[in-house]
Write a structure and sequence with these properties.
Layout: E1 29-30, H1 47-56, E2 73-79, H2 84-102, E3 107-113, H3 119-132, H4 137-149, H5 165-174, H6 179-187, H7 192-205, E4 209-210, E5 212-215, E6 218-221, H8 226-237
Helix pairs in contact: 1-7, 2-4, 2-8, 3-4, 3-7, 4-5, 5-6
Length: 242
């Protein structure tokens, strides 16, 4: 398991412009409701559903932990590499989170795929999974978001042609990955089923859009400005149960 990114994993882009109106507190890109039945959504999940969600939110062998694995708090973000609000979260909230809480062993972070915005989302998620094979997930994750942020001239339009195989190979080259191995992983779609399963698991855990942020198994919001994340973390750190 890759526990710590290299030093340059913490470098973030200098600026970001994200289109959209921020509505108090919790912004997500929502999954469309494709259920055409007349059955209303269940308001109260069954005990089995709650147990399934709790199980899914436990750290798995496929997760790559950013920070100290023994940190008392676990933050899990479900994201889509095309999602503008995920990019905003990465740029505005994740940097101070890393500096103040992850580097100081108070919080460990896990990123999971919820690739629902289109083919580029799935392709980027699969490429990021391939980077895990060479223990460079967080560096690759950061590079993907940096590349997508730099495409703000496209206005945050999904499937704009930015997240391509050529970009994935360029990032892999920049990170000095074993390129033939990485290329074979991408071209064979080695992790396509894994990404689909991530989406399914996310829905079971209650994810309805991106970003979706969980802190110690409790969903605390969608896009969250850092002061809101800080407030939630500080409250939990004071809890006698931690």
């Amino acid at each position: 398991m890759e526990n710590e990114p290299k030093k340059n994993d913490f470098l973030l882009p200098a600026s970001i412009v994200v289109a959209g109106l921020m509505i108090a507190g919790s912004i997500v890109y929502l999954v469309g409701n494709k259920d055409n039945s007349n059955n209303p959504p269940a308001n109260n999940p069954s005990n089995n559903q709650a147990a399934d969600a709790s199980s899914i939110l436990k750290i798995k062998s496929s997760d790559v932990i950013l920070g100290d694995p023994k940190a008392p708090l676990t933050l899990i973000e479900y994201g889509d590499y095309q999602c503008p609000w995920c990019g905003k979260m990465y740029h505005e909230s994740e940097q101070p989170l890393r500096e103040e809480y992850i580097k100081t062993s108070k919080v460990k972070m896990v990123y999971r795929n919820f690739a629902f915005l289109g083919p580029e989302s799935s392709a980027a998620a699969e490429a990021a999974e391939c980077s895990k094979d060479q223990k460079q997930f967080w560096a690759f994750h950061d590079a993907l978001y940096s590349a997508e942020i730099s495409e703000t001239k496209n206005g945050g339009i999904e499937n704009s042609g930015n997240l391509t195989r050529d970009l994935f190979l360029k990032i892999a080259t920049d990170l000095k990955l074993d390129l033939p191995s990485f290329t074979n992983c991408v071209d064979s779609k080695k992790y396509a089923n894994k990404v689909e399963q991530d989406n399914s698991d996310g829905r079971t855990a209650g994810v309805k859009g991106t970003p979706s942020v969980f802190l110690n198994d409790q969903q605390i919001g969608g896009f969250l400005p850092f002061p809101e994340i800080k407030s939630s973390i500080d409250s939990l750190l004071k809890s006698p149960k931690i």
